[in-house]
């Protein structure tokens, strides 16, 4: 029987995330606050960025430690320097948390990148459990982003992934496709891998009346939501808007693209270069209230991720968020997008921008289909995909981690023999 947060010393966890700070990283913040509400003492280490610059603060009973990020990664050497800096700062802060902070029994490391297995191996020497939170397929994402599969960097990413899986005692991952990778490529036992989907917190969202201002006087509004990175295919959507207007004669639709990201300025310039800036609005990052008002005013939510080995196996948060607002989802035909959206989605030929444009036109011309798909999506979010449905598997993963930790305290002939020890 595992330790209980309500009996004896509370369970303690340290979450490490490098890609984004909290609370900006929604998945990590939901995990942290869920654990805190369940009685865990939670600490997080992350970089200072995206407006979250306080070195130390406590929010919703989560103790946050942020380190400065003086390196702006560009090119291979830049990324290597950034990863090294973040690793050193995280390692030092983990010692501070262990000795002078809340302490921790589980080190919960999120990817990308998969560099924290060394830190996990170190803390395992002191009886900590290393839990790997598998957000992304880093080798596949690298191939999608740079168009190169193979080579030294690709093999290095595979090595880091393999070592992370090897050191991790428990894995939390986002969908069944990722779990299959953890088992086949990572060599994990299926029972050590827990699927915790990235569902939305329904309390974050609110429906509003339609605001025609977002469509710039046009009858229809198409929405894109998400950080705009090179691999996200937003250029496909921009070109589809040109096809929609110039090839299909549709001048009754506007597109609003919500989100920042490293590639956003380049995509906004690209829209100007190909002559569609007048039918595309780039908002940058917006508040939750503004986001809700935009999506409440939209007719279609588009996910233009082109089909790659990365995207086909990835759960896109934007898809589920569109569904909350009752938007039919238009996307290329990707496996995990179908798993998420089901009949709330219209799936077109992968990587075919004309098919994307024709899909927009088809949905705009079929109001009953939009309503039917929107209702299916709305119900699916509320009955299967909201974050509340991810809480039990997350807590089960932690029960598993603490059961392993308790079992190792007892003399036993096997690696998991014996019973539970006192906390």
Automatic annotation (TrEMBL):
Domain of life: Bacteria
Domain Glycosyltransferase subfamily 4-like N-terminal: 28-197
Gene3D superfamilies in the cross-refs: Glycogen Phosphorylase B
Pfam families: Glyco_trans_1_4, Glyco_trans_4_4
Protein name as annotated: Glycosyltransferase family 4 protein
Transmembrane portions of the chain: none
